[in-house]
Amino acid sequence: MCLMECILIIYAVVVNLNMYRYPYKVAQKGHAVVFSADDKNAANELDLNDKRFANEFRPIMEHCQCYSCINHTRAYIHHLLVTKELLAHTLLMKYNCFASVLICVLYFVF
What's this model's pTM, rounded to 2 decimal places? Predict the structure, then answer.
């Protein structure tokens, strides 16, 4: 069984309906779910509406391989949120879904 199949099985078993809505609700607020691989219980929300992200030209989470982190910076997503562009919520939703899967994998596999 490959890693992607394992991830999908774990995600399907662990995630209930309320947790599935969580990435969407967080993205609608303009927040991103961030966590530390060292501390499994330290999942926090990063408010990208905050002015301090206007000049932060790094991905939402370092070493993340999702579409949002590879192609966009915190400053760009902050700009999209300030100008009320729908793309901001789309990018945050993609990232938050990816991060939710990673949290499940880290918590239940390692």
Answer: 0.76
Residue of 85, 74, 94 lying closest to 27 (CA atoms): 94
The residues, ordered by sequence, that sit 6+ positions from 28 with a Cβ below 8 Å of its Cβ are 89
Listing DSSP states for the chain in one string gives --HHHHHHHHHHHH--HHHHHHHHHHHHTTEEEEE-SS-TT-EEEEETTSGGGGG--S-SSTT--SHHHHH--HHHHHHHHHTT-HHHHHHHHHHHHHHHHHHHHHHHH-
φ, ψ for residue 31 (rounded to 5)? -110, 155
Cβ atoms within 10 Å of 27's Cβ, excluding its own: 22
- Give me the average pLDDT of each 10-residue run along the chain (110 residues): 66 56 88 72 81 95 91 97 96 90 69
Nearest to 103 by CA among 48, 39, 13, 50: 39
